[in-house]
Specification:
about 325 residues; alpha/beta; Rossmann fold; 5-stranded parallel sheet; 7 strands
């Protein structure tokens, strides 16, 4: 019998539904046993978020500072026996993995469970995930895991729709903002239910040994399509986040009132960056599209992020 561990943190419940859809083919299969570890912060995050509280998570999230978690709920016998596959569901926050995800991956338990074990990541996000996946890849590797596949489901709205609908959802809890004008926030229902197809392939790859050999079973299914328009934007954005996180932390620890003015400046910067810098980046990409060297570089980046086995062999 093959043993599967499913680990995830879901604040709104959307990622939990995505993970359950991916793992639905495992249910009632006599050849597999599935254990679930739902990560729980020691102090639950509020939802909807207060404005300051939402942005106050930013510096520690980007710097990969682990958030305290409630005790892990896994049978000791399961920990000792280990697993044949770990499925890790997470959301990118500020182009980085969510703090509970970081805390798990940096924990001694992760080092024990992931060591020499195939890992498949499952992402649910607005639209940008490649830099967050880079951080996860590094932490999985540090824990001894073998990242073999990635599934990334993104918001169905356009970038400018989600620039409005995602903050409204996070700050008010309303997924439907001006119906008929904006697409509902979050991953489309058809994409969530359709994720079971990926689970079927994972199950087949687990049972026939491909995952244990470090082979992708989702490579031909476009499980994590990369939008070339976001590659440069994400790289630039993450560098700016790294600088801003250092500046904000100069004002003290999380919760310090001295942070508030700096967080307000950062929020203004973020809004202007999305509204102005991203379109300029798209224009620059269009112009550079006529440069053969740039086209080759961009194609190599897209291939790199779309195919996890390429990461494993590095």
């Amino acid at each position: 019998m093959k043993r599967i561990l499913v680990v995830y943190y879901s604040q709104t419940g959307q990622l939990e539904r995505i993970v359950r859809s991916v793992t639905a083919p495992f249910e009632h299969n006599a050849e597999v046993q599935v254990d679930t570890l739902q990560l729980r912060p020691a102090k639950a995050y509020p939802f909807p978020w207060p404005f300051v509280g939402f942005f106050d998570q930013f510096p520690e999230c980007v710097r990969l500072d682990p958030a305290p978690l409630a005790p892990f709920q896994l049978p000791q016998e399961s920990i000792e026996q280990g697993y044949d596959l770990v499925i890790l569901g997470y959301q990118p926050w500020y182009l980085s993995p969510s703090p509970p995800t970081t805390a798990f991956l940096q924990s001694p338990l992760a080092a024990r469970l992931l060591n020499n074990t195939p890992v498949v990541t499952v992402i649910g996000c607005r639209n940008m995930w490649i830099m967050g996946q880079e951080r996860v890849r590094e932490m999985v590797r540090a824990a001894g895991g073998k990242l073999v596949d990635n599934i990334a489901l993104v918001d169905g709205g356009s970038p400018y729709e989600t620039f409005i609908t995602t903050p409204v959802w996070l700050l008010t809890g309303r997924k439907h903002f001006l119906p008929g004008v904006f697409t509902a926030a979050g991953v489309a229902e058809r994409d969530i239910s359709g994720a079971a197809h990926f689970g079927q392939q994972l199950l087949a790859g687990l049972l026939d040994g491909r995952l244990q050999r470090g082979e992708s079973v989702l490579d031909a299914l476009q499980a994590c399509p990369v939008n070339p328009s976001y590659v440069v934007s994400e790289k630039m954005g993450w560098r700016s986040f790294w600088i801003w996180s250092w500046i904000v932390r100069l004002a003290g620890k999380q919760g310090s009132p001295l942070r508030v003015p700096l967080l307000a400046c950062y929020a203004l910067f973020l809004g202007l960056a999305i509204a102005l810098v991203v379109p300029l980046t798209l224009v620059a990409r269009f112009v550079l599209g006529y440069v053969p060297a740039y086209r080759r570089w961009l194609a190599s980046q897209v291939a790199y992020y779309q195919r996890e086995p390429a990461l494993v062999r590095q």
